[in-house]
Amino acid sequence: MTDKTTIHELDEDTVARIAAGEVVERPASAVKELVENSLDAGAESVDVTVEEGGTELIRVADDGRGMTEADVRAAVRQHTTSKIEGLEDLESGVGTLGFRGEALHTIGSVSRLTIRSRPRDGDDAGTELVFEGGDVVSVEPTGCPEGTIVEVADLFYNTPARRKFLKTTATEFAHVNRVVTRYALANPDVAVSLTHDGREVFATTGQGDLQAALLSVYGREVASSMIPVEADGDDLPPGPLESASGLVSHPETNRSSREYVATYVNGRAVTSDAIREGIMGAYGTQLGSDRYPFVVCFLDVPGDAVDVNVHPRKREVRFDDDDAVRRQVDAAVERALLDHGLLRSGAPRG
Ligand code: ADP
Ligand code: MG
């Protein structure tokens, strides 16, 4: 008998990189965290620039409240956040998008991360912090505009297995595009732009109008075919849904991919089978098989009626009563289509 064991503790670096893979799956996941941080910082403009689908470079620049040197140093440490104090805050529901306090540290442990930040109203000049593979490389004063610019270069440079799993530039960029699009549509009062390999893909004005944001993102043809959905209280059949609002497209404006069905619950971009089925039910046979409308739909439900933890990354949600939600969404969208003469009433429904 021997007391030797093959079980051993992993070193800190390895643990950090494994954890990183759980949060940062691909460039789009990093983009999501950075854009959420910018929105949480009260930005009025968020400019996202990526190169090679985000695999070479991701840059998110905002005009939010910015950070002091001490803030920047703290921000890249593990489990640091300015957004909650403890578990009670988690349970009471937080108003901010991110709250786990791990995004920057995690992204920085699998990339070369540079943060330049300057607080909005203070006399701090600005700070540049370079973080590589989980370590602070340098912190220096720098001249920079108020707000924050985060650059993520060479994502997964130190996790070759992960890097190998990246798809083509086109595919990775499609994921990035979808993430930025969802935030742009959900925040029409923020000017959001996306640039890929030097080409501007879209830029919203931040004037606060969903229709205008949608025009900037999807173009005139789609924007001109959208009709409003607006239902609450007595308009809805019984169920947890308190209100539904947004825009849905004329049935003839459709695509073969679900990616243009953007749904939000209590302000968060989510996917849900019940919501999607409700929408598709309303269109019935007006859409061909495997065709999907353009949708931007905001739903409000009491926090305790929804389970957001089904899949933390994919943001899939379930409701206590999925059937009721399906019926309510169906009714809200059907009403909008009927009001605009886009459904024959009594037409066969799929
Ligand atoms: P979390 O967002 O969960 O708090 P992060 O690692 O994403 O964790 O960010 C850590 C902290 O860094 C945030 O709580 C915030 O105080 C600060 N921070 C990050 N990004 C920005 C930004 N763009 N503008 C201002 N502060 C930021
Ligand atoms: Mg965050």
Keyphrases for this structure?
five-stranded mixed β-sheet; alpha+beta; binds magnesium ion; 11 helices; 17 strands; binds adenosine-5'-diphosphate; single chain; DNA mismatch repair protein MutL
Q: How would you sum up this structure, described in words?
A:
With 350 residues, this protein is an alpha+beta fold. The protein has 11 helices and 17 strands. The protein has helices at residues 12-23, 27-40, 69-75, 87-91, 103-109, 160-164, 169-186, 210-218, 220-223, 273-283, 322-339; strands spanning 45-51, 57-62, 112-118, 127-132, 135-141, 147-153, 191-196, 199-203, 226-232, 243-249, 254-255, 261-265, 268-270, 292-293, 295-300, 306-311, 316-319. The strands form 4 sheets. An 8-stranded mixed beta sheet has the order 5-4-3-6-2-1-7-8. A 5-stranded mixed beta sheet has the order 9-10-15-12-13, with helices on both faces. Strands 11-14 form a two-stranded antiparallel sheet. A hairpin with a 4-residue loop joins strand 16 and strand 17 (316-319). The N and C termini lie far apart (68 Å). 40% of the residues are buried. Bound molecules: adenosine-5'-diphosphate and magnesium ion (MG). Adenosine-5'-diphosphate is lined by residues 33, 37-38, 41, 62, 64-67, 75, 80-83, 98-105, 148. This is DNA mismatch repair protein MutL. Residues 214-338 form the DNA mismatch repair protein S5 domain.
